[in-house]
Amino acid sequence: MKKPSPSWELYERLIARMISDQLSTDYCVTPNARISGRISGRKRQVDVLIDARHNTDNTRRIIVDAKKRLRRIDVTHVEAFRGLMEDVGATHGYLVSPAGYTKAAERRAQDEVSIRILPLDRLDEFDPSTWPKCANATCHSGRVFWDGYPEIELTLQSFSGNEHRRIPFVHYVGKCDRCGLFHVKCLSCGDLISLPEDKDDDYGHRCRCNLPWFWLASIEEDENGCRSAELHAVLGIGSIMTVDRRGL
Ligand SMILES: [Zn+2]
Ligand SMILES: [Zn+2]
């Protein structure tokens, strides 16, 4: 009998999870992103995309490619990856491999590409089947990848007006690992809300807590014409916090 091949999709998700857990909250992580190539004009699949979280700013973009093979990375992989980086406007790239790399690959990587080794046995303790199912009815077996944990404070004033009490409300924000749909989970009431970014008649979503803020997704464009889907927490008039993004 043939040995079952490793689940490369799981390997990609493990890398996304590890990066998201270690990264500064100024950045957001998108697994399985689809980005318009500036040069090719085609949609390019990116295993893990890292962008600025809070602003429509794609100038600090980093991409990660999981090498789905049991042989070492060689120079041709590095060259193809550098082409992808250029096409999607990434300033830095990580190639992750379970099997190492050749000397020529290391030389071709130069300063723009970092090569990392992540052994396949790290998959043993990794189980994304516990992640929530995507709420999109047409999405096939997508799971929600949480990559941000925004806290919103509600300030309560006493009747005398002298005392303030601050109550923190914690949320998870993230996106589906297949269709990219944004999701928000409120830890106070447990509601799981999904938010499409491309509906013009969408005026926002609130959880059961019914507090004075709501969530809204939209599509934004930077000055170079680079588009992204963005998830916002609307806290009041003129007070909008961008809590997650996904390059398009
Ligand atoms: Zn989905
Ligand atoms: Zn709630």
Describe this structure in words.
- The structure is a single chain.
- This protein has helices at residues 8-22, 75-88, 103-109, and strands spanning 27-36, 43-52, 62-66, 92-97, 113-117, 144-148, 151-157, 164-176, 182-186, 192-195, 214-221, 227-236, 239-247.
- A five-stranded mixed sheet has the order 1-2-3-4-5, with helices on both faces.
- It is mostly beta strands.
- It is built from three helices and 13 strands; from the N terminus they run αβββαβαβββββββββ.
- The model has no long low-confidence stretch (mean pLDDT 93).
- It folds into two domains: 8-128, Trna Endonuclease, Chain: A, domain 1; 131-247, no CATH class.
- The N and C termini lie far apart (42 Å).
- One zinc ion is lined by residues 134, 136, 139, 142, 176, 178-179, 181.
